[in-house]
Design brief:
Elements (H helix, E strand, L loop, with lengths): L3 E6 L1 H8 L4 H12 L3 E6 L2 H6 L6 E5 L8 E6 L5 E5 L21 H15 L13 E4 L15 H11 L5 E4 L8 H11 L4 E3 L4 H7 L2 E4 L3 H5 L7 E3 L18 H10 L4 H12 L1 E2 L5 H11 L13
Parallel strand pairs: 1-2, 1-3, 3-4, 6-7, 6-9, 7-8, 9-10
Antiparallel strand pairs: 4-5, 5-11
């Protein structure tokens, strides 16, 4: 039986893959066809996730919950044109999360120009003014009333900790734009907003980042976006970008974490280069195939020898 690579995604992304307008999928197609595989595009649902565990083919899902030795997940690495491929269920403790960030491995001559290009591309001159400045930004995530296995605190506990450690600073809660909160969650938000120095704000996230003192979150992508604004963050959950930020795993960590966020120098430029250029695939570059192969091997796939034409 001829081996297949099957790319799974939801309808909008699947149409881009089918039309050849999804660069990572194009890279994967060239790699696998060069090794003699058939490459197929399929929907992503519970049945396809179940079948992928048993059919003997290779499967890559978009942000999927697939299981099995021949299934991996692909996702955008926070900023275009960077993508990463991980084992299922491992974003928070997976391939990049377990690597060590060593600033000395990144040359400043590479990091600073890259950082400036990313700023120009993604935020432009977005140092917008706002009515408020110097506040703590708390980007809200999902399931506000639960503390999931990879989280060290829920929203209410984070707000309580901020008020204990930084009592004079305003706290801005920013609802997640794609979350619908239930009645219990809305009650929690109302209770928090009744606290004198806590406010719910629906302003654009880049404006809020530009004017905040720092970010406090479980592991929201907003904290990673804040790197472009050179904003420090405190994390209350497992994360794949924990390397330069203090993490509060228990109440005893809080004092040190908040002290660090005020005093510690953060190597934003080198970290952004290390995370994106050294550990993700820039799918707009000729080096993308070799980086994709590296991620596949790190994901546990043992693939046949590849033809030179594929890279």
């Amino acid at each position: 039986m001829r081996k297949k690579l099957i790319l799974h995604s939801h309808p909008v992304m699947r149409s881009h893959i089918e039309s050849g307008n999804h660069k990572l999928s194009n890279v994967l197609r060239n790699i696998f066809e060069g090794m003699g595989f058939g490459v197929h595009i399929a929907k992503q649902d519970k049945l396809s996730i179940w079948k992928a565990k048993y059919d003997g083919h290779y499967h890559i899902f978009h942000l999927g919950g697939a299981d099995g030795t021949r299934t991996l997940n692909m996702r955008k690495a926070y900023f275009d044109p960077f993508w990463t491929i991980e084992k299922p269920h491992t974003r928070h403790w997976g391939r990049v999360a377990h690597k060590a960030f060593i600033p000395g491995t990144v040359g400043p001559g590479l990091a600073l120009p890259f950082f400036k290009r990313m700023q120009e591309r993604h935020i432009g001159n977005d140092g917008r003014t706002a009515e408020m400045t110097d506040y703590v930004l708390v980007p809200m995530q999902g399931k506000l009333c639960k503390q999931r296995a990879w989280q060290y605190a829920d929203l209410a506990t984070m707000v309580k900790t901020i008020r204990e450690q930084d009592p004079d600073r305003q706290i801005i809660l920013k609802p997640h734009p794609r979350e619908s909160y239930n009645t219990e969650e809305c009650d929690v938000v109302r209770q928090l907003s009744a606290i004198p120095n806590v406010q719910i704000v629906e302003a654009p996230i880049q404006s809020l980042l530009a004017n905040c003192a720092y970010v406090v979150t479980q592991n929201s992508a907003v904290a990673f976006e804040g790197i472009l604004f050179r904003k420090p963050a405190i994390l209350f959950a497992r994360s794949d970008f924990h390397h330069i930020f203090p993490v509060v795993k228990s109440p005893k960590d809080a004092f040190g974490a908040f002290n660090q966020v005020h005093l510690r120098p953060f190597n934003f430029e080198k970290y952004l280069y290390w995370y994106l250029q050294m550990n993700c695939a820039n799918v707009s570059r000729p080096t993308a195939p070799s980086k994709v192969l590296e991620m596949l091997y790190e994901g546990g796939w043992t693939l046949p020898a590849q033809s030179a034409a594929a890279v």
